[in-house]
Amino acid sequence: MAPKDILENIEEITLLEKQEIILQHYHDGKSQRAIYRETGIRRKTIRKYIKEYEAKRVTLFGSQNPSGEELILRYSRETQL
Hints:
Elements: H1 3-10, H2 15-27, H3 32-39, H4 43-61, H5 68-80
């Protein structure tokens, strides 16, 4: 599926869901370019969410080492507030 086709489906999801999709791919070790190719989400948007995530990661989790899914869920809940 081409990125433009994926973008049509992304418009139907919430911003929080988009954020979770980006962070899940990022946590899986994918580059911003790879995330763009797979999702069609603009690289500028991907960069923004990753930058915010990295900035808050230490504050939210300290020295704990939660699983990738738990990291993303906790971050998403925190940023909703």
